[in-house]
Write a structure and sequence with these properties.
Layout: E1 2-3, E2 10-11, E3 19-22, E4 25-28, H1 32-58
Antiparallel strand pairs: 1-2, 3-4
The chain binds zinc ion.
Amino acid sequence: MDFDPVCGKRVDATQSSPNSEYKKKRYFFCSERCKQAFEREAERMRLHELAKVGALLSKGRVRWGLA
Ligand SMILES: [Zn+2]
């Protein structure tokens, strides 16, 4: 049994359920809409993490306007 991480609904995960892999973990969604919302957010998080890594490497000289 899985939970839709976007809306919190319970999802009976099957082969045909909308799903997405993020950081080697598979997430299932109740609908394509939730899947797309998740992927948008995951992409935002990824950019945020890249910016943090950049901050470590460049000691604060981060250009936050990238995303
Ligand atoms: Zn949902």
